[in-house]
Automatic annotation (TrEMBL):
<comment type="similarity">
    <text>Belongs to the isocitrate and isopropylmalate dehydrogenases family.</text>
</comment>
<dbReference type="GO" id="GO:0051287">
    <property type="term" value="F:NAD binding"/>
</dbReference>
<dbReference type="InterPro" id="IPR024084">
    <property type="entry name" value="IsoPropMal-DH-like_dom"/>
</dbReference>
<dbReference type="InterPro" id="IPR019818">
    <property type="entry name" value="IsoCit/isopropylmalate_DH_CS"/>
</dbReference>
<feature type="domain" description="Isopropylmalate dehydrogenase-like">
    <location>
        <begin position="4"/>
        <end position="330"/>
    </location>
</feature>
<dbReference type="GO" id="GO:0006099">
    <property type="term" value="P:tricarboxylic acid cycle"/>
</dbReference>
<dbReference type="GO" id="GO:0000287">
    <property type="term" value="F:magnesium ion binding"/>
</dbReference>
<protein>
    <submittedName>
        <fullName>Isocitrate dehydrogenase</fullName>
        <ecNumber>1.1.1.41</ecNumber>
    </submittedName>
</protein>
<dbReference type="GO" id="GO:0004449">
    <property type="term" value="F:isocitrate dehydrogenase (NAD+) activity"/>
</dbReference>
<dbReference type="GO" id="GO:0006102">
    <property type="term" value="P:isocitrate metabolic process"/>
</dbReference>
<dbReference type="Pfam" id="PF00180">
    <property type="entry name" value="Iso_dh"/>
</dbReference>
<keyword id="KW-0560">Oxidoreductase</keyword>
Amino acid sequence: MSQTITVIPGDGIGPDIIESAIQILDKAGCGFTYEYADAGLVALDKHGELLPPQTLEAIERNGITLKGPLTTPVGGGFTSINVTLRKHFGLYANVRPVNSFKGTKARYENIDIITIRENTEGMYSGLGQRTAEDGSEAEAMSKVTRSGCERIVRFAFDLARREGRKKVTAVHKANILKTTSGMFLAVAREVAQDYPDIQFDEMIVDATCMKLVMSPEIFDVIVTTNLFGDIISDLCAGLVGGLGMAPGANIGEKCAIFEAVHGSAPDIAGQNLANPSSVILASIQMLEHLGMQEQAKKILNALRDVIETGDRTTRDLGGNHGTTDFTQAILDRL
């Protein structure tokens, strides 16, 4: 029976790069069927809301979603669509791998780091945001739970064990944030004892950022809280050439959403200029999640060869070709 994938093309360059990924998945013989759904500005124009009920129903019904970048309008009354999706479906684990590709403009070689970010709690969740009527002060609340901390840390150790990784680094600020970050660190230490085959390390977040820039090779799997993970995962993307080379997965008990992590780039939308690598890499994550390792490896090898040889690459990769040519180069190899 064919797996049905919910596909959210998204805004800006989203439809173009999603179409690229769909062509590649089909060429690799994945045998998916697709149910398309709207979200973001496209959905606002068509349905009067950023995240229509029918889109939520499609995500829940199929369990697996491939998503392009979404635009949340700036200003009051608009909640982040991505945050809403994570909360609605309990997508507690954000998985952001970065790998070096020869042929990119990255400053480092042999980068292979996975950042695992708790996705539903902490400061980034937007809990308790309030601004005084006179504008003199503002506040927000950071709340973590023991169960949330344990769940994400176990997820990180299980992933490390499953993929043959050697080390998990828990990133925190427990020296200052003694309650919230302190709880995360304490739970991480407890959980680590159940995985004697995996080396456990702990590091303060500011030191982590410095060492990622100076000595990124010391990291393997990073697990951290919501806000720190948001920052660190983008820093790691910078090590391999930027957000265009970084995919993301949001995983819960019943649903998983795989996405391009960069913005919708409305300035180049519809111009056949976008690099689709992020969403192609996200589709590879999706295949691995579904146990389709052979197809995932086939697509990854084709993508690597296109970038390394510079065959029909996009401008950000040093070439002068567009999305369709880049996609065709991958299809030719498949």
